[in-house]
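User: Run a structure prediction on this.
Assistant: Running it now.
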Amino acid sequence: MNFKSLAIPDVKVFTPRIIQDDRGYFMETFKVTTFNQAVGHEITFVQDNQSFSKDIYTLRGLHYQSPPHAQGKLIRCTRGKILDVAVDARKNSPHYGQHVKIELSADTAEQLWVPAGFLHGFATLAANTEVQYKCTAYYAHECDGNVMWDDPELAIDWGFEPHKAVISQRDAKACTFASFNSPF
């Protein structure tokens, strides 16, 4: 498995080696020693989540979980394709308010590491898309929050017209980035 940093260095992309033959393929999707080497310290995952979105342009985000239950996430698209976005919400970071994005698909099998202290969201670029992600902390409703996915200050280009987005009522009521009081 190979890894590289994106423009915000703490966000990493992991690319597995896929071994194919007449029967199909094999790939190693996670190896703790490689992962810890890439992020520079030991990480423990405590919860795995899975989402399924039936419609193209389903948008989930921008979500975060505040301390003491802040979550790092290792995201993988296992069916379909997504545009995955991470926004740096760490107040003392030189990248505060900046974002990185990458397309993840079942075809490439790449995974995105988003550390705690980031807003995270994704939009489906294909119907019937499935996403799986590992989390470093358990879900805690009282620490759950979100910021507008289409906030003008963040200026994220999701690759489609905003009126096409399929969003939840919760995400429709998210706060602006300017009014977001980062707990990170």
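Residues 59 and 123 are 4 Å apart (CA to CA).
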